[in-house]
Amino acid sequence: MTAPALIVDASGKPIDYRREAANFTGRMASEITRIIVVAAVMGVAVVGVVAVAQNQPGDPGSGEPIDNVQSATTVDGTADVCVVFFYAPGCPYCAEVEAYLESVAEEREITVKQYNVRTESAELLMSYYDRFDVAQRDRGPVPIVFVGDEYAVGSKEGKALIHEALTRGEPVACPVVNESAESASAPPSLAG
User: Fold this and answer.
1) C-alpha distance from residue 4 to each of 1, 18, 59, 90 (Å)
2) Which residues form the signal peptide (predicted)?
3) What confidence tens digit (pLDDT) does each residue in 3-60 have?
């Protein structure tokens, strides 16, 4: 048997493959770490851009009313179903309810009165809490939806309440809780 040939580098020194393999592994580990850090930073940047883009005026969750949701009335001026909707700007669950209302408004006659809980509408919301005898555990979270004599807290529950009122096929008038609080907190341009 012949001995394996000795491999040398350009300077004539023998190459220690074990040491070279360890150096290569160390370089690869640091390169992989660098790639992971860059990917993480880019991911955070993308999420930030998406969050800003989703919170533009007029978009669901931005806190600004969506024009075609606000009112659709019959010829005699009455609405099939009236929904009173309290929301907070930037709330993703509120945006889900707004998007649902927008899709419903394309198919059905519905009046939506939406109020931002972070503005002067807080007093009006308290009136709704009292009028509807809202449980203490349900006071505070948004979205909260009032239809007829019922209320629902949360996106899923609010959409279900609206759907139920629409499928009954009976007109549902807007609840009036406190004339002075409602007129002081009236949302902009809700008339059809």
Assistant:
1) 9, 16, 73, 71
2) none
3) 666 677 777 777 777 777 677 777 777 788 788 877 766 765 555 544 434 433 344 4
Please state, in angstroms and rounded to a whole number, the distance separating the CA atoms of residues 162 and 167: 9
Domain holding 107: CATH number?
Answer: 3.40.30.10
Asked whether residue 192 is assigned to any structural domain, the reply reads no
Distance CA 192, CA 72 (A): 6
Task: Give the number of domains in the chain.
Answer: 2
Least confident of 24-28, 109-113, 161-165: 24-28
Residues 87 and 120 in one domain: yes
For residue 145, what are the domain limits? 67-184
Residue 145 resides in a domain:
yes
Strand-strand pairing, 150-153 and 144-147 = antiparallel
* CA–CA distances in Å: residue 41 to residues 45, 96, 110: 6, 29, 45
The pTM of this model reads 0.55
| Domain co-membership, 92 together with 156 | yes
